[in-house]
Structure formats: C-alpha cells, structure tokens
C-alpha cells in the first residue's frame, strides 16, 4: 500500500471540555499513467471511487485529467474526518486498488492536503487551466455567506446583551462563527451541489 503522510496529532482536550467536531479532509494525489494505459488507469480510479462510497465518511471524489499529454492525473478525495480517511487508507480495498494501479501508473503518487479557504473550491484549485471563473467562485461564496450571516444576525438578535459587548471582541466572535461555519459546514456541501455550475465553461 502506498504510504500516506499523516498530520501531526493535536493536543488533547482539557478535562471536561467537549471534543472539537472533526473537520472534513480534502486530499489530492498526483500521479502519471504509463503511456498507452491511460484508459486503464482512469477505469481503475473510477472503480476505486465506487469502493470508497461504501466507506463511512466518504463525501465525494473527482478525477482530473492531465493538462498535457503525459502529465499528472489528480485524484481529489473528500472524507468527513481524518479518522475516516485513515480508515480508508488502512483498508484492504485501497491496498488492492493500489497494487492494480502500480501496473498502469508510471510513478508513485504525491499527496497534498487542502484546508481552509483553499479547500472550499477543491477540486477547482487544480489544475490551473480548470479554475472556475472568479465571478462564479464569488457568486457561490455569496450564496454561502448570505444565509450564514443572516442566520447569525438573527441568532445574536435574540441576545440583547451581545450588542453591548465591546466592538472588537463582538466582531471577533461573530466573524469567527461565520468562518468556521463556512469552512466546515456550508462550503464543502455548496461546492458539491454547484459543481456543474463551477466546472461549466463558456461556449462560443
């Protein structure tokens, strides 16, 4: 099985404190197919996606073709947490698929994790020629921010004392809630729903 770098473990939660909710994980693997075996490589990857769907926490996957002949394929996978991605990495299904992929791949995969704003538009972040137009990314971001901000404005209106707090701490709490909600809840789902819109190109 191909070795996958694991992120460093965080510090344990303080006694009695609730454990933080697990964050979704986006990982990209870059790899070349052997000349003349590109179709076999693609078919094996898509078959592997079918096996991934049976695993807990699987949120979606994409196969991006090379920008030029002989270039890297990019496989983008999304899981609900590091633990769920690790469970897939340790599975016999993944091991079997990677044995098969070595027969049609020209090299070992190179892995990269995406986080924060970068992960909002995965797999749109790579390759460069496949970036969605900025206007589309801005529109999808607005679709996420508008209801999120509206919800929190309504929520804080239920607490009259909130507006009496100092400006900077109040703003820090408000914007922090929005960023957390957008990064781990809204945008991963919204970009999947809007995938066709983001990926569509202009005609003419």
Q: Poorly predicted ranges (pLDDT <50, ≥5 residues)? A: 8-17, 124-130
Helix-strand pattern, N to C? EHEEHHEHHHH
Biggest sheet: strand arrangement: 2-3-1-4
**Strand runs, count:** 4
Assigned CATH class of the largest domain:
Alpha Beta
Main sheet record: 4 strands, antiparallel
In total, how many domains does the architecture comprise? 2
Number of H- or I-type helical stretches = 7
| Overall outline | elongated
Averaged pLDDT, please? 81
Radius of gyration: 20 Å
Question: Any guess at the CATH architecture of the largest domain?
Answer: 2-Layer Sandwich
Q: How does this model look, in words?
A:
With 204 residues, this protein is an alpha+beta fold. It has 2 domains: 25-127, Alpha-Beta Plaits (2-Layer Sandwich); 134-199, no CATH class. 48% of the residues lie in helices and 13% in strands. It contains 7 helices and 4 strands. It has helices at residues 38-52, 82-89, 92-104, 116-120, 134-157, 167-193, 195-199, and strands spanning 25-31, 58-64, 73-79, 110-114. A 4-stranded antiparallel beta sheet has the order 2-3-1-4. A hairpin with an 8-residue loop joins strand 2 and strand 3. Helix 5 crosses helix 6 (167-193). The longest helix is centred in the last third of the chain and has 27 residues, at 167-193. The radius of gyration is 20 Å and the shape is elongated. InterPro entries: ABM_dom, ABM_predict, Dimeric_a/b-barrel. It comes from Thauera phenolivorans. Pfam families: ABM. The chain crosses the membrane at residues 137-155, 167-187.
